[in-house]
Structure to design on (566 residues):
């Protein structure tokens, strides 16, 4: 099997320390992360994350697919925020094509992205709190997450692997009653965040397990390539939604939560406040949702409506051609980054002018964030490793791809 | 936004902060540049990559202080076969730049930039693992995603999608 050769963390002759293997099957590693720890009593002397157990070669698979066939693959990279990955990929391809997207599709994408962020942060909060010992929070979080997943099912027919975004827009008009349901959710969700905060923020046990634990300075975070709440928890003020806007994020007002301490609690506060900001963006998107089409007017790239296919010869031809031969994308390369719940999710796509991408590279936020783990944990207690892993919010599917 | 032709003339592009900085330092280190789809690409000479990164990182006017990504593209069977690609981000100026280095197919190797950004560690290991490009001076250059005893480099174009049977 993979990784037969454990990394030589320990030199021979040192018998003060011992090697401890944490994972790959360990409930607090959120998947199949293996961490090799060198410990001296209860203190971590050195640590080394070992990844690759979920590697499926998605980047290679993409090279053998048509551009539109890659969208479902992007869901499966990060199964907690499928829409963010969809968005990043379709934005990159649209940039390659030079395609203009109608406002309604852009706003729908923003709306769904923020719901995805809420979904992802709820799973993180529940599991992170459970790792540290607050079991109840998990049930609270999954109660609201269920509602988000039901909304995803309503709009895309799937709870997790939504594949709702298309190159040139979104797959379908949202069904009747969808916006009302989101509005109702946006109405009561802030109270639920208060409930989570009541359980945790002022809780002295939670404070002892998180405050001052797994500290990282801003310089270290930047040098190690950390992004998202892991970086903002150390006091670096950057959010791609605000600073390098995409998909009309520049039309929304929201704050970017920052904490200065750089510990587990700081990252927790960043994410919890992001929950509140996200629901604010959802509300703005609902209030200002423009009218109009949800797909770009680009025959040959965007699949025609079903109705038109039955009445117009050209639509039928385009449909047949897109499905059987794909569409050629002009030669070029783009790097498109979006702010995923975990940080900077980037797609680097190279086109050689054929209907299949020449190279698709996914810059995964967790992959870089994971490198900060040794900095956070070395010299600290073993029990804090669990808190540190939880606080960077890893998804192994995204790391291993 | 409709597509406009890419600009590749160095004279036209020399006002871009990253390119101006590199040209001011060493004209020979810049092999070319391209501005396409609002993105700046600079081709850097192979031996100059580490110094170019240091230079851009410490630019007082526009510090490209964050390394977003390192990756590679295989142009098999063309030569030079590999392109190693660095995406830099300037957090204060919200500016991106892409550096490219071309490598020949016979034992491709390049200097590691882990001494500039420790965060390049995993990215370089990934490129080494999947493309077989060596990074000289990397502290721990071993496979990261594939098993230790794997043969071949899966993202190379001469490696079949379904693997060797």
């Amino acid at each position: 099997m993979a990784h037969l050769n454990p990394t030589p963390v320990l030199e021979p002759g040192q018998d003060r320390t011992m090697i401890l293997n944490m994972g790959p099957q360990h409930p607090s590693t959120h998947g199949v992360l293996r961490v090799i720890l060198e410990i001296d009593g209860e203190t971590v002397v050195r640590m080394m994350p070992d990844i690759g157990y979920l590697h499926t070669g998605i980047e290679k698979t993409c090279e053998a697919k048509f551009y539109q066939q890659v969208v479902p693959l992007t869901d499966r990279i990060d199964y907690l925020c499928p829409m963010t990955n969809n968005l990043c990929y379709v934005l990159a391809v649209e940039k390659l094509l030079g395609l203009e997207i109608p406002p309604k599709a852009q706003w729908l994408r923003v709306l769904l992205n923020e719901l995805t962020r809420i979904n992802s942060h709820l799973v993180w909060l529940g599991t992170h709190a459970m790792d540290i010992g607050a079991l109840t929070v998990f049930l609270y979080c999954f109660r609201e997450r269920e509602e988000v997943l039901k909304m995803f099912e309503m709009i895309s027919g799937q709870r997790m692997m939504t594949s709702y975004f298309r190159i040139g827009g979104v797959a379908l008009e949202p069904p009747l009653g969808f916006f009302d349901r989101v509005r109702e959710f946006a109405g009561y969700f802030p109270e639920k965040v208060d409930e989570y905060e009541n359980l945790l923020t002022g809780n002295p046990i939670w404070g002892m397990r998180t405050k001052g634990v797994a500290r990282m300075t801003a310089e270290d975070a930047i040098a190690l390539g950390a992004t998202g709440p892991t970086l903002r928890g150390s006091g670096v003020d950057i959010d791609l939604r605000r600073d390098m806007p995409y998909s009309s994020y520049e039309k929304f007002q929201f704050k970017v939560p920052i904490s200065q301490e750089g510990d587990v609690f700081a990252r927790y506060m960043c994410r919890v406040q992001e929950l509140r900001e996200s629901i604010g963006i959802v509300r703005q998107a609902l209030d200002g949702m423009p009218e109009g089409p949800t797909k770009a007017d680009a025959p040959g790239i965007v699949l025609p409506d079903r109705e038109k296919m039955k009445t117009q010869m050209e639509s039928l031809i385009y449909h047949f051609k897109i499905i059987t031969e794909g569409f050629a994308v002009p030669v070029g390369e783009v790097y498109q980054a979006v702010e995923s719940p975990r940080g900077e999710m980037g797609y680097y796509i190279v086109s050689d002018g054929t209907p299949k991408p020449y190279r698709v590279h996914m810059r995964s936020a967790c992959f870089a964030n994971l490198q900060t783990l040794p900095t956070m944990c070395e010299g600290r207690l073993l029990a804090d490793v669990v808190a540190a892993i939880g606080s960077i919010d890893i998804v192994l599917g995204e790391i291993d791809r | 936004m409709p597509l406009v032709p890419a600009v590749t003339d160095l004279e036209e592009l020399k006002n871009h902060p990253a390119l101006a900085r590199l040209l001011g330092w060493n004209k020979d280190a810049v092999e070319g540049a391209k501005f396409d789809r609002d993105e700046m690409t600079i081709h850097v000479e192979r031996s100059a990559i580490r110094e170019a990164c240091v230079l851009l990182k410490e630019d007082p006017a526009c510090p490209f202080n964050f390394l977003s990504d390192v990756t590679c593209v295989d142009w098999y069977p063309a030569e030079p076969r590999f392109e190693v690609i660095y995406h830099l981000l300037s957090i204060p100026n919200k500016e991106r730049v892409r550096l490219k280095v071309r490598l020949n197919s016979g034992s491709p190797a390049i200097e590691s930039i882990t001494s500039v950004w420790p965060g390049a560690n995993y990215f370089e290991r990934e490129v080494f693992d999947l493309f077989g490009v060596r990074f000289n001076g990397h502290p721990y250059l071993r496979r990261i995603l594939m098993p230790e005893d794997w043969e071949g480099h899966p993202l190379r174009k001469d490696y079949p999608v379904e693997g060797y049977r």
In short: The first helix of chain A runs from residue 58 to 62. The mean pLDDT of chain A is 87. Residues 58-400 of chain A form a domain with the Cytochrome-c3 Hydrogenase; chain B fold (CATH 1.10.645.10).
